[in-house]
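User: Could you write out the 3D structure of this protein bound to 6-O-phosphono-beta-D-fructofuranose? I've included everything you need below.
Assistant: Certainly. Input first, then the structure.
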Amino acid sequence: MVLTGGGDCPGLNAVIRGIVKRASQEQDWEVVGCIESFNGVLREPTEVEILDEKRVEGLQIQGGTILGTTNKGGPFAWPVKEADGTWTTADRSDEMLRKLQYMGIDAVINIGGDGSQRISLGLYNKGLNIVGVPKTIDNDLSMTDYTFGFQTAVQICTDAIDKLVTTAASHNRVFVIEVMGRDAGWIALHSAIAGGADVCLIPEIPYDINRVIDKINSRYNKRRGNCIIVIAEGAMPKGGNVTGTETGEVGYQHIKLGGVSEQLAADLKAAGVEHDIRCTILGHLQRGGTPIAFDRVLATEFGVRAMEFVLEGRFGQMVAYHHPDIIGVPLEEAVRQPHLINPDERLVHTAKGVGIEMGG
Ligand code: F6P
């Protein structure tokens, strides 16, 4: 059985296709897809779909996931409405494992980010034959060089910066471009370098607004000039906090990040910056549409190898990209700590080397 969990991401369908195509080369293996992560097994009636070669034809191009996904709840924290209207959670993992056995499922491939792989680990520890596949545009999973979907998101952001550069120059404006990434600045850092930004602010380096102002000033000759600031949604000023809101959505366990670009613009204005400032929040555009070739290839490699791990009985592992190989890492290690930017790392050095102000 294959399923996709967490936020969607370009390349999910390419992984599903890789799994199904590789499985079809074996006798005795049939692949079923579970709808909306594990929810399809937990719901009554069960929501699963048989996946054959015909169903996955051409899927490497298609964004999103044909199986649907969710980043709420899960078998260990299923949302339950109490009589008084409040919500609690129930652990339905044992019930789900019994149901999988009843359905005759021999193995599960769980395509998802850190939250999903924590669920994989919990289920593996309870005896499920499970293999993980690392997915997320944030690239924040350690033990793999890249997650698929990340490079597509970086390309989308870079294309946006390329467009905003020309309008910023025409109007002598400061542009603040907010990109996703949650607690990791990978999308911001890569797209700032690729797009030739002037400032890049990431969660791993809380920023000093005075450094941002100095950079803006250096980019103007009296009123002529422009400045491109790329800011990760999880960035924060020195001594400050992230900008976000509680969604109030049932089962959603995160703060919804967003709005730090507008906060920075307001702070710059309050500090006396007189140039026009405009903000662009790229939001879910970064997760939509067709995966670029790199992600199609990586996702296909992950899919094929994940299926081979099943055939080889290598459970409790996550497939991972360690250039030039696709290897397996224990799920426990895969989720131990997030993959964040070390301020001393090569790419930060490169950004500074081309004059990008990192804010701290
Ligand atoms: O983890 C992927 C991601 O796109 C983050 O970059 C972002 O903060 C979050 O998901 C948005 O989640 P949602 O789709 O629930 O708004």
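The chain has two domains: 2-148+290-334, 151-288+342-353.
User: Perfect, thank you.
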